[in-house]
Amino acid sequence: MAISEKDLKAAEGRMQAQREAGYAVSARYDRRSSRIVIGLNTDVQVAIPARKIEELSEASAKELEEIEISPSGLGLYWPKLDADVYVPALLQGIFGSKRWMAAQLGATGGKVSSAAKAVAARENGRKGGRPKKTATN
Protein backbone atom coordinates (compact mmCIF):
# COMPACT_ATOMS: atom_id res chain seq x y z
CA MET A 1 0.00 0.00 0.00
CA ALA A 2 1.45 3.31 -1.06
CA ILE A 3 1.27 6.28 1.29
CA SER A 4 0.61 9.58 -0.37
CA GLU A 5 2.25 12.83 0.61
CA LYS A 6 -1.17 14.02 1.81
CA ASP A 7 -1.56 10.96 4.10
CA LEU A 8 1.92 11.50 5.51
CA LYS A 9 1.23 15.18 6.27
CA ALA A 10 -2.07 14.24 7.96
CA ALA A 11 -0.32 11.64 10.14
CA GLU A 12 2.39 14.13 11.10
CA GLY A 13 -0.33 16.63 12.05
CA ARG A 14 -2.06 14.08 14.28
CA MET A 15 1.24 13.24 15.98
CA GLN A 16 1.99 16.92 16.56
CA ALA A 17 -1.46 17.40 18.13
CA GLN A 18 -0.77 14.49 20.49
CA ARG A 19 2.64 15.92 21.40
CA GLU A 20 1.11 19.29 22.31
CA ALA A 21 -0.83 17.59 25.12
CA GLY A 22 2.48 16.48 26.63
CA TYR A 23 5.21 14.02 25.78
CA ALA A 24 7.83 12.14 27.76
CA VAL A 25 11.30 13.60 28.11
CA SER A 26 12.36 11.23 30.91
CA ALA A 27 11.19 7.97 32.43
CA ARG A 28 12.45 5.85 35.29
CA TYR A 29 11.32 3.12 37.64
CA ASP A 30 11.29 4.11 41.33
CA ARG A 31 11.94 0.90 43.31
CA ARG A 32 10.97 2.46 46.63
CA SER A 33 7.42 3.30 45.54
CA SER A 34 7.16 0.66 42.74
CA ARG A 35 6.09 3.44 40.35
CA ILE A 36 6.95 4.48 36.84
CA VAL A 37 7.89 8.17 36.98
CA ILE A 38 7.44 10.01 33.69
CA GLY A 39 8.81 13.51 33.20
CA LEU A 40 6.87 15.51 30.62
CA ASN A 41 7.96 18.40 28.45
CA THR A 42 5.57 20.60 30.45
CA ASP A 43 7.74 20.23 33.60
CA VAL A 44 5.10 17.94 35.09
CA GLN A 45 6.00 14.55 36.52
CA VAL A 46 3.51 11.70 36.59
CA ALA A 47 4.03 8.65 38.83
CA ILE A 48 1.94 5.55 38.15
CA PRO A 49 2.13 2.28 40.10
CA ALA A 50 3.61 -0.30 37.72
CA ARG A 51 1.02 -2.89 38.80
CA LYS A 52 -1.73 -0.59 37.49
CA ILE A 53 -0.40 -0.81 33.91
CA GLU A 54 -1.48 -3.98 32.11
CA GLU A 55 1.80 -4.53 30.23
CA LEU A 56 3.82 -4.10 33.43
CA SER A 57 1.53 -5.57 36.09
CA GLU A 58 3.44 -8.87 36.46
CA ALA A 59 6.95 -7.53 35.85
CA SER A 60 9.82 -7.69 38.31
CA ALA A 61 11.75 -4.63 39.46
CA LYS A 62 14.73 -5.78 37.39
CA GLU A 63 12.58 -5.93 34.25
CA LEU A 64 11.14 -2.47 34.89
CA GLU A 65 14.47 -0.67 35.37
CA GLU A 66 15.35 -0.25 31.70
CA ILE A 67 12.96 2.14 29.90
CA GLU A 68 13.40 3.63 26.44
CA ILE A 69 11.50 6.70 25.22
CA SER A 70 10.41 6.78 21.57
CA PRO A 71 11.82 9.61 19.44
CA SER A 72 8.42 11.34 19.46
CA GLY A 73 8.16 11.05 23.26
CA LEU A 74 4.73 9.45 22.86
CA GLY A 75 5.80 5.91 23.69
CA LEU A 76 7.72 4.09 26.41
CA TYR A 77 9.38 0.74 25.78
CA TRP A 78 10.67 -1.90 28.18
CA PRO A 79 13.16 -4.05 26.21
CA LYS A 80 13.34 -6.84 28.82
CA LEU A 81 9.56 -7.24 28.60
CA ASP A 82 9.12 -6.30 24.94
CA ALA A 83 6.34 -4.02 26.22
CA ASP A 84 5.16 -0.72 24.77
CA VAL A 85 2.99 1.85 26.53
CA TYR A 86 1.41 4.89 24.87
CA VAL A 87 2.04 8.03 26.95
CA PRO A 88 -1.12 9.96 25.90
CA ALA A 89 -3.24 6.98 26.99
CA LEU A 90 -1.54 6.96 30.41
CA LEU A 91 -2.23 10.68 30.76
CA GLN A 92 -5.91 9.95 30.05
CA GLY A 93 -6.00 7.23 32.73
CA ILE A 94 -6.06 4.35 30.26
CA PHE A 95 -3.70 1.76 31.73
CA GLY A 96 -4.66 -1.29 29.65
CA SER A 97 -7.30 -2.92 27.49
CA LYS A 98 -10.98 -2.39 28.33
CA ARG A 99 -11.29 -5.99 29.52
CA TRP A 100 -8.23 -5.77 31.79
CA MET A 101 -9.28 -2.43 33.27
CA ALA A 102 -12.82 -3.71 33.90
CA ALA A 103 -11.39 -6.72 35.73
CA GLN A 104 -9.23 -4.44 37.88
CA LEU A 105 -12.20 -2.23 38.74
CA GLY A 106 -14.38 -5.24 39.49
CA ALA A 107 -11.78 -6.74 41.81
CA THR A 108 -11.44 -3.44 43.64
CA GLY A 109 -15.19 -2.95 43.90
CA GLY A 110 -15.69 -6.43 45.32
CA LYS A 111 -13.25 -5.67 48.14
CA VAL A 112 -15.01 -2.50 49.18
CA SER A 113 -16.44 -2.67 52.66
CA SER A 114 -19.28 -0.51 53.90
CA ALA A 115 -21.71 -0.52 56.79
CA ALA A 116 -24.56 -1.51 54.46
CA LYS A 117 -22.53 -4.40 53.01
CA ALA A 118 -21.64 -5.64 56.52
CA VAL A 119 -25.32 -5.52 57.64
CA ALA A 120 -26.43 -7.39 54.51
CA ALA A 121 -23.76 -10.06 55.05
CA ARG A 122 -24.85 -10.59 58.69
CA GLU A 123 -28.51 -10.83 57.67
CA ASN A 124 -27.65 -13.29 54.94
CA GLY A 125 -25.63 -15.34 57.42
CA ARG A 126 -28.59 -15.52 59.81
CA LYS A 127 -30.70 -16.92 56.98
CA GLY A 128 -28.22 -19.71 56.30
CA GLY A 129 -25.87 -17.92 53.92
CA ARG A 130 -25.95 -17.53 50.19
CA PRO A 131 -28.56 -19.70 48.47
CA LYS A 132 -27.26 -22.64 46.43
CA LYS A 133 -27.37 -22.21 42.67
CA THR A 134 -29.81 -24.44 40.86
CA ALA A 135 -29.21 -25.84 37.39
CA THR A 136 -31.60 -24.75 34.67
CA ASN A 137 -32.09 -26.12 31.18
UniProtKB/TrEMBL annotation:
Basic residues composition bias: residue spans: 127-137
InterPro entries, sorted: DUF2442
Chain intervals for the UniProt region annotation (Disordered): 118-137
Official protein name in the record: DUF2442 domain-containing protein
